[in-house]
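Record 1 of the preview.
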Amino acid sequence: QVQVVESGGGLVEVGGSLRLSCVTSGRTFNINLMGWYRQAPGKERELVVRSTNGGSRIYAESVKGRFTISGDSAKNTVFLQMNSLKPDDTAVYYCGVRGPWSDYPAYWGRGTQVTVSS
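->
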């Protein structure tokens, strides 16, 4: 059974940083299939960043230059380094794992809350 588990969320002040982690188990995935999404209160879930099969990164415009995705294949783990955080970044952050021929995740974690206080 595939499990996807996020960690690293919390409360941070404006301008601060957080590093989220996502680890999968039950199956080995190419880390390029793992991405980050977020859902703010009253809004739909949106893409934060994901990778293409070739390893290119697709970032949401709102996080470009501030957020960075990275990974450790040996540990089935991806990270999201978030810098210069803003109140609009407040959301539940989800790790999603897609299939190689899909742009949308088939597996989701339960999410980790990120709150940016002003």
